């Protein structure tokens, strides 16, 4: 197995609270890994360590065997892109938003990015203010992909979307992993994790309780989540 990320005994303590407790996992290259578990389990905390939006207070996170602090943080964040829960558009026009991380992006490339996330190229000239939540989330996803990251992190990226937009975003994640990208997503939805992920990491109260192929992870079986 080629590990993209290796977490060695990773802990995160904030004051009295132990948000992550000695978590050790490897995240396989070219797979879609879902971080699942109950509310407050530490899923977002773990995800944010992977591009240094957060720092462990114990243990180490390695990218291809190198500790994350050895990388330039901005270069790391281009390599490990994050799509947040709520879409945040940064400019007034869709095309300009897609160029935020890559100014030299041509209109052709921008149109291809939109196609990749299931949006028509006619949207390039649209004002960002008029987009629906589902469209805005997919523009954010396209903007992240414009930078050509090696890894895509997604934190509950469909939790505010209607079923049709959720299905569209899920299809994009699946296709990205099928194309060889490493995708790590946080989901509170077991059915979603089963639909799109290859592997699942189950956290409860900051501790790793299971990690394996989705079909073998007990937490994801049945509808009891
Ligand atoms: N700065 C902080 N100080 C103390 N506790 C914190 C801090 N930040 C987060 N927490 C707590 O850490 C726990 C883990 O938070 P985290 O957001 O990682 O969980 P989660 O599994 O993603 O939850 P959810 O599914 O509800 O988003 C929560 O109980 C949260 O309240």
UniProtKB/TrEMBL annotation:
InterPro entries membership: AAA+_ATPase, ABC_transporter-like_ATP-bd, ABC_transporter-like_CS, P-loop_NTPase, PstB-like
Recorded superkingdom: Bacteria
Residue span, ABC transporter domain: 5-224
GO MF, any single term: phosphate transmembrane transporter activity
SMART domains, per the entry: AAA
SUPFAM superfamilies: P-loop containing nucleoside triphosphate hydrolases (SSF52540)
Keyword Methyltransferase: no
GO cellular component, one term: membrane
UniProtKB keywords: ATP-binding, Nucleotide-binding, Translocase, Transport
Keyword ATP-binding assigned: yes
Gene Ontology biological process terms from the UniProt entry: phosphate ion transmembrane transport
Protein name (record): Putative ABC transport system ATP-binding protein
Organism: Kribbella caucasensis
The organism's taxonomic lineage, starting at the top: Bacteria, Bacillati, Actinomycetota, Actinomycetes, Propionibacteriales
């Amino acid at each position: 197995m080629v590990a993209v990320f290796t977490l060695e005994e990773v802990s995160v303590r904030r004051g009295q609270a132990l948000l992550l407790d000695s978590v050790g996992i490897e995240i396989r290259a070219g797979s879609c890994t879902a971080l699942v578990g109950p509310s407050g389990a530490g899923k977002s905390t773990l995800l944010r360590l992977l591009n240094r939006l957060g720092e462990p207070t114990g243990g180490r996170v390695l990218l291809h065997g190198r500790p994350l602090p050895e990388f330039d943080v901005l270069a790391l964040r281009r390599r490990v892109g994050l799509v947040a829960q709520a879409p945040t558009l940064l400019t007034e026009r869709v095309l300009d938003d897609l160029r935020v991380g890559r100014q030299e992006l041509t209109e052709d490339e921008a149109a291809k990015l939109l196609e990749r996330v299931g949006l028509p190229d006619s949207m390039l000239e649209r004002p960002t203010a008029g987009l629906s939540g589902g469209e805005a989330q997919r523009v954010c996803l396209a903007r992240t992909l414009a930078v050509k990251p090696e890894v895509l992190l997604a934190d509950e990226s469909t939790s505010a979307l209607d079923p049709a937009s959720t299905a569209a975003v899920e299809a994009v994640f699946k296709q990205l992993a099928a194309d060889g990208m490493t995708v790590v997503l946080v989901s509170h939805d077991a059915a979603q994790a089963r639909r799109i992920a290859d592997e699942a990491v189950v956290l409860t109260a900051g501790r790793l309780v299971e990690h394996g192929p989705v079909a073998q992870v007990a937490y994801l079986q049945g509808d009891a989540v």
